[in-house]
Structures are given as structure tokens and as C-alpha cells.
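Incident log, structure service

09:12 report received: a user says their structure output differs between two submissions of the same chain.
09:20 pulled the input from the user's history:
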Amino acid sequence: MHDLDKPYTDSIQQWDIACDCFKAEFKFDPNEIVTIDTIREMFAEIVDGHALSQNASISLMFALYFLGYLTLLEIMKAKDESFEIGNMNDFYLILDRADQWAHQSTDAPLLAEAAMPIIQATQQIMQKLNLAR
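09:34 re-ran on a clean worker, output below:
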């Protein structure tokens, strides 16, 4: 993890950098998740709306990815009550890294405000699926 904190530029450039950081940290392509278009749209709206720094944008992208993954698990569970959610430890690392990037950002309070709906939605789905960190 490197400190990439730069002021806001534009969400498209910051999205590309966040995806590259995700690939480097987790060794898989975040663009493979089926909800990636929704995640990208939410990312752009929040980054552009709050002029988030690069580190804050990376944190946000990781948090949105995690929420997207949880949403898919929730859909699978709704379709099939017998669907079992496996070990989530590897995916909890995504949240840990999101926190690390947030702590390195110069605009952490702004990120916390902008990400509050994402944090709340993540907590609600985790409770619904009986997931705990």
C-alpha cells in the first residue's frame, strides 16, 4: 500500500487508479463482479459530488466493492434459503484495506460523511445475513 493522496482530479481517472490498487492488493480484477457498473456509477457520483482525494477514492471503491459483493450474497440467499455463505475472511480484508486508505487520506472526515449511506447499507446486509467480523 502506497500513499497516493492527491487532491481531487476527476472520478474516471481516480476510478482507474482505485481498480489498479485493488488488483495489486487482492490479485483479482474488480471489474469481474456483475454489479461493477452500478458500483462505478455510485463511485463517480460520490467522488465528483464531494471532490474526494485519491486515497479517499480508493477507500470508497473498496467499500463499494464489498457492498456489491454482499448484495450478491443477499440475492443468492433470497433465491435459495439453503445457500450457504462460506468463509468471508478474505473479503473482510477489503474492508480493512478500505479503512487503511481512509486513514491515509487528507479528507477523511469528508469521506466519512460521503460514505455513511454505504457503511449503513453494509451493516444492514451483514446483520441480515448474520455475518460478523
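09:41 both user submissions now match this output. Likely a transient worker issue. Closing.
09:42 reviewer note: The longest helix spans residues 54-79. The two ends are 22 Å apart (CA to CA).
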